[in-house]
Amino acid sequence: MSTSKFRGKIIQASENGNGELPPAPEIGVAVFILKDNKILFGRRRSLSIAANTYGLPGGHLEFGESYEECAAREVKEETGLDIKNIEVLTSNSNLYYEEKHLDITYARAYLSNPNQTPQNIEPEKCEGWEWCDLNNLPEPMFGPLKEMLQSGFNPFLITV
């Protein structure tokens, strides 16, 4: 077992049996794009961690990138949409199927031009995009996102 000092406390990190530390969490950003009381959702294909579930546009945070920069880049890469007024709302940490540790930061944004239409730019990763009402969410939904929304989280009401 490895130990390190952090703020005066001894922290022990469990090893994976080979004397190595477990992999670091993956850090991602997911974006609630809001339009006319609807949220943009896409159904992920089987090659992603959230296989065959609905989720928000987003992806991995790149080195040196802010959450807002990541949100804008990922939304553009996945949907072709330009967004504005990007606000970080919350973060959560999930051990997903005990295989991956995901730290997800959720942001809210609006379309730069309300007449834009989402495009499926990465069809190998996503089946397509659709606008859904918060009271009529698509199923099956990515587990951590579903739990957060079912617990009463509302991206329309959060003030930052």
From TrEMBL:
Single GO molecular function: 8-oxo-7,8-dihydrodeoxyguanosine triphosphate pyrophosphatase activity
Which Gene Ontology terms describe the biological processes this protein takes part in? dGTP catabolic process
> Which intervals hold domain Nudix hydrolase?
22-160
Q: Which InterPro entries match?
A: Nudix_hydrolase, NUDIX_hydrolase-like_dom_sf, NUDIX_hydrolase_CS, NUDIX_hydrolase_dom
User: Which is one Pfam family of this protein?
Assistant: NUDIX
Record family assignment:
Belongs to the Nudix hydrolase family.
Fetch the CDD domains from UniProt. Answer: NUDIX_MTH2_Nudt15
Has the keyword Hydrolase been applied to this entry?
yes
Origin organism of this chain? Deinandra increscens subsp. villosa
Sorted alphabetically, the keyword list is: Hydrolase
Where is the signal peptide, in residue numbers?
A: none
- Listed GO cellular component terms? cytosol
What is the protein named? Nudix hydrolase domain-containing protein
Note whether Hydrolase occurs among the keywords: yes
